[in-house]
Design a protein that fits this description.
By secondary structure, the chain is mainly α. It is built from twelve helices and no strands. It has one domain. α4 crosses α7 and α6 crosses α7. The longest helix is centred in the middle third of the chain and has 21 residues.
């Protein structure tokens, strides 16, 4: 990738998605070249047991995710940030938080859901390039909402039509689907062209301001 950039090639935007594609293709090439290696269902038999048990902590990616989550949270209306704070950080159920928000219990519950969903879409959208190519702009502007199944059928079809002919945007959409899977299970799910992944595990939270914003989106 560095050689391509030095030669004047490579991406003008969306570097992360481009880099992930390069890494994925490199891994495929290496796997094909090492097929002579006999697979084993017990890695501890061929590797140091202590090394196998060491978890990988991608601090660089975590820092980027915290920054994007913080940006998305800051973009919420004040009232929506308040309800996320009360229900997630203070741990109050919507019925308990309702009087402080001047709402009925049902109103507070509905607001909490809308705020959570909008924040999740915003966190996903923050991964898209801010200055996309002209032909990609209409799809990329709503890719976060599309990933969360938040578009109308007509809008979703337009995005999917573009993904079928644009490898860059398709790669980015797959990345957003993976990030979406890290959110806690909710009513909204990812809508994919070739995949519909299940919702699953709780997103890992780091420390500092990023922890707060990431928890708001989880």
């Amino acid at each position: 990738m560095l050689q391509a950039l030095l030669a004047g090639g490579g991406p003008d935007s969306g570097v992360r998605a481009y880099l992930l594609t390069v890494l994925r293709n490199t891994a495929y090439d290496r796997t094909r070249s090492e097929r002579r290696v006999a697979p084993s269902d017990d890695i501890t038999g061929v590797a140091d047991r202590a090394l196998v048990s060491v978890p990988f902590d991608d601090t660089a990616t975590a820092a980027v995710d915290k920054s994007l989550a913080t940006k998305a949270f800051a973009g919420l209306p004040t009232r929506w940030r308040d309800v996320r704070w009360l229900t997630e950080i203070a741990g109050q159920p919507p019925a308990q938080a309702a009087p402080r928000l001047g709402l009925t219990p049902d109103g507070a519950s509905a607001l909490a859901y809308r705020a959570r969903e909008t924040l999740r879409q915003g966190c996903l959208q923050a991964h898209a390039p801010t200055t996309p190519a002209q032909r990609c702009a209409p799809a990329l502007r709503v890719l976060g909402a599309w990933t969360r199944n938040g578009l109308s059928e007509r809008q979703a079809r337009a995005v999917e039509d573009h993904l079928r002919v644009c490898d860059f945007c398709l790669t980015l959409s797959a990345e957003l689907v993976e990030i979406n899977n890290s959110f806690r299970a909710g009513k909204a799910s990812a809508r994919g062209v070739n995949h519909r992944p299940p919702e699953g595990r709780r997103q890992r939270l780091a420390t500092g301001t990023g922890q707060f914003a990431a928890k708001m989106a989880s």
